[in-house]
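Hello,

I think I submitted the arginine job twice by accident. Can you confirm which output corresponds to this input? Input:
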Amino acid sequence: MSKLWQGRTQANLNKKADAFNSSISFDSRLFKEDIEGSCAHAAMLAAKGIITRAEADEIEKGLMSILEDIQSGALEIDMSAEDIHMFVESELTKRIGEAGKKLHTARSRNDQTATDLRLNLRSETDKIYASLVGLIDALQKKASSHINTIMPGYTHLQRAQPLTFAHHLCAYAFMFMRDCDRLKEARHRININPLGCAALAGTTYDIDREMTTSALGFEGLSQNSLDGVSDRDFCVELLSDISIIMMHLSRISEEIVLWSSWEFKFIELSEGYSTGSSIMPQKKNPDMAELIRGKTGRTYGNLITLLTMLKGLPLAYNKDMQEDKQAVFDSIDTVKSCLELMSLMIGDMKVNAENMRSAAAKGFINATDCADYLVSKGLAFRTAYKTVGSLVSRCIETEKTLESLTLSEYKEFSDLFAEDVYKFIKLENCVKKRNSKGATSPQSVLSQIEMMKDFINSVSNPIATT
Ligand code: ARG
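Support: Only one job matched these inputs. Its output is below.
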């Protein structure tokens, strides 16, 4: 394809260098945003008398026909073009002639690329946000049916205190709600208009940047043209938010892997979300969760790619910056597919409440409650802690549980023990009593679920409205 920049050079670019220089293989997905940005630019040029109204109309009609043809498949994007911006512009000139050549007045590919990318990331941010809301909804639905399902809670992966499964799921929902908040913040900084910054110094034409800002739905415009064309902070910010989402997803994935193992058997994934082994017939592997855990790495990699690419770059545009898109698009595609899969898996997982309950019965996870019992009878907590420690040692020696010790055995350790200790250390009661704000009791978890429902209802039309 001949080059639109055949000015100073004759564009006799070496074939290998040409291919190396090209970004169309990965920026062709910006075709819609490129056309949208160009339409707004042409309308502004006409409003300011820089081109005629008739020329702007021709440009808009031409661009719309290109859009339709790409979408219907009638026009194939030419992969030998340098990038999507060059492709659209030369196709336009092919279709409408002279007027097409006026589109690039008062504009550079530098502000054009930044504009297209911002428009694209704005809509992708909304999609990721919507997927997060979907996942929060799946978690709250699953949690709602496990308000009374008791499981062991862990610290150091050692059984610690009893929890409800609902409480555990809600913990993840709160992480994803924070992720929504972060995206909402990032969106404000993505949604800024660089169009009109031109190559780096602005333009001599009397343009109206406010006009393209409102036509394209931006919240504001970049106030310094050098910064406008060289700023990729919005990409870094989105990639770091995506990395945090993936980090959260990798943690729940790890739990799904553990919970579905023979050692835990807390949940079972249906055949729809697990695979077999080519050699071991008994296997049912949680591949989806493992893949989500694994894909987290590439999103961290993309973030580091971008930070490293930008490090030490002098102002303004440098070709290094073309490398931004692959990293950003890869993370976007990754997080969207992972969020979708995770929502489906959460909805589908079968919870083995009996196994959770019997795991909770082992490991003395009511030892804290036993100490609290002695505190309720007047003992200092530190002393009670020691007494229960000795009780647990006795249980381990005699292969008993705190529930199965007789009252006379209890009394060997403290006279304060009475018949009511059994009720006090019953797991269901341990859970019910943990009723402080944010705690694991069914009542507390129900109010956490209410918060999630309120959040979901408040974003029926995601962040676009805020
Ligand atoms: N494809 C390029 C990119 O994505 C477009 C910008 C090229 N600008 C330039 N002055 N050569 O960064």
